[in-house]
Amino acid sequence: MTLADFVNLLINGTVEGLLMALPALALTLVMAIARFPNAATGDYMTVSAYAAVGVQWLIPGSLLLAAVGAIAAGVAVSLLFYLWVFRALRGRPLVASLVASIGVAFFARSILTFSVGQDQLALQVPMMRAWNFSGIRVLPLDLVVAAVSIVAMALLFTLLRLTPVGRQMRAVADNPDLARASGIRANRVLLVLWAVVGALCALGGFLFGAKSVVSPELGWEQLIPAFAAMILGGIGSPAGAVAGAVLLGIAQELSVPLVGPSYKIAVAFAVLLLVLLVRPRGLFGVAIAAR
To answer: What stretches of the chain adopt beta strand conformation (E)?
Structure first.
């Protein structure tokens, strides 16, 4: 492998990692505040990606409106299932919400495939030639994907650190009982949480669809790497989720010359098992109490 090949894999891995960080952040926020792993995260991404395709079908070529439509659909679906399913399970054991989220995932995917079928669809993305620097190839689309992901993460961290509702979310994550005793309205915090989760999933689904194709398995294929990234970075740590996603994305891409592109997903499983065995709390993990 030449130096140019290594740099190309490094660039691809960084872009994939930044993109993977969006669903990993959605998983981390739910785990930190609602206290369960949301297995429906991937299917929120899929629904949002199909919504973007639908907007482009109605308004051909409008990529920005497609992104807005995806985010609107993601937020709507996330809030719908919170109000319909997860709100009723507050205070129940973790496994109850986990099983419910698996049911939500299958329900959403079944409705989607019944409505649109199993065919692969594509977003209308402007075709641009890759820039070549002595064998190092940079796709303009990858730069856009990376930039949008970074801006979304910057907005999220600004929300968490610099706004009253963000501080309330962190207070609930740190100590739910103390937060309630301090007068923090949990219902309002959870509504904001699920809206943010829906937006992150929607943006991730839209960007994954723009980079490849939109299919009913789009979100499911990204769910395990996102889980692995969350665990690698540390459950409950948003910054750790981003770091874990980038490290995992780079590791997956660098493994391609050894295992091939079809089996790089196995790297995510290997990382997941290794971290669980060696450092269950992850790189930047904090203790999370389960109810």
So the answer is: 131-133, 136-138
In 3D space, the residue among 90, 210, 235 whose CA is nearest the CA of residue 143 turns out to be 210
The pLDDT tens digits for 19-29 are: 999 999 999 99
Cα angle value 51/140/123 (rounded, 5°): 20
- Asked if the model's pLDDT at residue 283 lies above 50, the reply is yes
Kindly tell me the burial class for residue 220, based on how many C-beta atoms sit within 10 Å of its own C-beta (0-12, 13-18, 19 or more): middle
Read off the pLDDT of each residue in 123-145 and give the average, rounded to a whole number: 86
- Supply angle C-alpha 84, 89, 93, rounded to 5: 155
pTM across the whole model: 0.91
Report how far residue 224's alpha carbon sits from residue 64's, in angstroms, rounded to the nearest whole number.
Answer: 28
C-alpha dihedral (236, 240, 246, 248), degrees to nearest 10:
-70
